[in-house]
Amino acid sequence: MIQFLQNLIDAIALGSIYALVALGVGLLFGILRLINFAHGDFITIGAYALIVPSADVTARLLIGGWPWPVMIPMICLIVVIVALLADALVFRPLRRATSPTLMIASFAVSYIIQNGVLMAYGSRPKAVDLWSGANTQVLIGDLRVPMLQLITLAVTLVLMTALTLFLKRTAYGVQMRAAAEDFRMAQYLGVRGNVVIGIAFAISGILAGVVSLLYTTQSGSLSHTMGVPLALFAFVAVVVGGMGSLVGAVVGGFAIGLIVTMLQAYLPPELRAFRDAFAFGFVILMLLVRPAGLVPARSTFERV
Amino acid sequence: MIEPYVEPAAPGVDRGLTNASELAADKLVVRFQGLAAISDVSLKVQRHEVFGLIGPNGAGKTTLVNCLTGFQRPTEGRIILGGGDTAGWSASRFREQGVARTFQAGRLFKDMTVMENVEVTAAGLGASLRSARKHAKAMLGWIGLADKAALHAGALAYTDQRRLGIARALVLSPAFILLDEPAAGMSDAECEDLMELVASIPRTFTCGVLLIEHNMRVVMGISQRIHVLDGGRTIAEGTPDEIQRHEAVLAAYLGMEA
């Protein structure tokens, strides 16, 4: 029983990370119909911004060495700038393009970022000790919970609440939801499309920046492809949750976290190497039963 | 029957030509690949009237409304708002400058609440959220949806969706509102309620109404002037009395030879 609870906590912590990444992907999909595979590379950028650019194996902290009230906003700011640049240089000229074109463009952005990182930092993975104190364990009853998992969960809840409040309680948030539902109608009613899209990119940048900090603290290493599996799992989470629904993205993120963790824990050892194949098998089953996702968005498929 | 409109204690938004007293089409021609949908139509909607636009199916009514709101570029002729030419304006520019419209298909934001549907329009036009909310509240009170403000727009009954479409167009008092068959598919009683509301718009909001409506009796009842299209051409314009006796109109509607 204790073991199961322990696994459950692992699942929730992993699910939180996937949920945050999925929110960033889902937000842009909702408004732009862009499936942004470069989102994972936004996370990579945030992580590499922590260290001094060099090809050395041992990384020296740059921004990562600053006190964290300065470091966190700085990392987020850098990722936001990258996200806004990607919009301005790549996606804005493609505003009238179809969804598949946008997705392919996002692959291009993804490879450009990965190779940029490769040039500046070299190809070898780097060890980074961002905050080793976070790996101390907290005892809750008989459960040993790494502090970082509690922090991850808390940060996820805070960000989701903040995003919800933004979408419901601010003028731009309401306009963003209108644009997500019917972009052309919203534009007709005075909503400024490029402003709303810019804000969406900025928010996805903030989410990516936070994830890069949480993820780097947890893994303790950097590589130029570190964001790719995150973006892939987040994309699957968005599909499982229901394309175009933010609640769905979050639910999907937690569902994927749960599936992956439980498979890791309960698959027979000789099958564990194929964990991801089993996980994606589950996803296929889930989509056969609920093709529109767990929390389908009404507006996505009705659009004429 | 109609709730009074309570002016909200919130600033409106200054917009260019909201003082325009007239929305006019001047010698309008619209051709789709050589086929004329509108041929040489001129009309003027005044700020203080309900102006009926009628005609059989395919007469070009919706095309005309699309021109008057910037959704369709005229092939020839001009749309004039308050004496100024509107050449090259986008639909959202028309909206900003005080020409609002509703759509036959509704086009509501179904996943958002009734309140938010109206709110977002006011916010899009530049009001702060606080002020947008006050304007939306006042508008919903007038149109009779105050008690449904928190529902999702997609959950509203059909007639209420129609009302919401009008509320969304009317918020922050445009100078003109163009209603494209607002009562389509309604029962007689529902239609009468709605038309009572429409008839009161010019007085309440100092906003001119152009009304497309199939039900002749309804249009006759609330319009001060009526313009009749058939096959993209003007066949008559005048007061309801004049139109009812107009031979060409009777022919177009009843299929009688004039």
Automatic annotation (TrEMBL), chain A:
UniProt subcellular location: Cell membrane
TM helices/strands, residue ranges: 12-35, 42-63, 69-90, 102-122, 147-167, 194-215, 221-240, 247-266, 278-297
CDD domains on file: TM_PBP1_LivH_like (cd06582)
Broad class of where this protein is predominantly found: membrane
Cellular component aspect of the GO annotation: plasma membrane
GO molecular function, one term: transmembrane transporter activity
Keywords: Amino-acid transport, Cell membrane, Membrane, Transmembrane, Transmembrane helix, Transport
Membrane-related topology note: Multi-pass membrane protein
A single BP term in Gene Ontology: amino acid transport
Database matches in InterPro entries: ABC_transp_permease (IPR001851), BCAA_transport_permease (IPR052157)
One Pfam match: BPD_transp_2
Stated family: Belongs to the binding-protein-dependent transport system permease family. LivHM subfamily.
Name of the featured protein: Branched-chain amino acid ABC transporter permease
From TrEMBL, chain B:
GO MF annotations, alphabetized: ATP binding; ATP hydrolysis activity; L-isoleucine transmembrane transporter activity; L-phenylalanine transmembrane transporter activity; L-valine transmembrane transporter activity
Organism: Chelatococcus reniformis
GO biological process: D-alanine transmembrane transport; L-alanine transport; L-isoleucine import across plasma membrane; L-valine import across plasma membrane
InterPro entries in alphabetical order: AAA+_ATPase, ABC_AA/LPS_Transport, ABC_transporter-like_ATP-bd, BCA_ABC_TP_C, P-loop_NTPase
Keywords on record: ATP-binding, Nucleotide-binding, Transport
Protein name: ABC transporter ATP-binding protein
Record keyword Nucleotide-binding present: yes
Transmembrane segments: none
Listed PROSITE patterns: ABC_TRANSPORTER_2
Domain ABC transporter: 23-256
Any one cellular-component term (Gene Ontology): plasma membrane
